[in-house]
Amino acid sequence: MGVARACFNKLAVAYPMYHLRAASLRCLPCVFAVSGMAIFAGCAAMVEQRGNLPTSEKLAEIQPGVTSKDEVIKILGSPSSVSIFNDKSWYYISRRTGQTAFFEPSLLDQQVYIVSFDDKEVVKTVDHKATKSTGSGSGGGGPTGRPPS
């Protein structure tokens, strides 16, 4: 262990906590950088996709007048919802929402494919309804995503 420098000895005697304070000041920019990154990460926009969104290739496999209910289940999977009064309409619903920080989520996109069946349990029609964001915070609609009438 050699002899300490003269300036070190003078500072150590005059200010015994000098080196601890200097070390903490050197770490200060790192603390601010990590804190800033944490704040920005918390404010990042999040997009969530929920539901079953069939691809166009799978929808092309369903042919009205030909495809049965069992085949629809094999192609598209189970529906998101079934008609309340009868089981002749199946709904495949997909919804994308976006949220920034602690604000309310807003509807970005909602797609509904409606597969209707006849009395013989064969596909009668395949309809598509879509709702896009209107730019307002609420997403432009009520609980169903449709604009209020």
Characterize the overall form. Answer: rod-shaped
CATH architecture of the largest domain: 2-Layer Sandwich
What level of helicity do the residues show? 25-40%
* CATH C-level label of the largest domain: Alpha Beta
Q: Report the sheet-strand fraction.
A: 25-35%
How would you describe the overall organization of this protein?
With 149 residues, the protein is of the alpha+beta class. The protein has 2 domains: 6-42, no CATH class; 45-132, Beta-lactamase Inhibitory Protein, Chain:B, domain 1, CATH 3.30.1450. It has helices at residues 6-14, 18-42, 56-60, 69-76, and strands at 45-51, 81-82, 89-100, 106-117, 123-132. Strands 1, 2, 3, 4 and 5 form a 5-stranded antiparallel beta sheet that branches. It starts with 5 loop residues before the first helix and ends in a 17-residue tail after the last strand. Mean pLDDT is 77; it is low at 136-149.
Summarize, please.
This protein has 149 residues and is of the alpha+beta class.
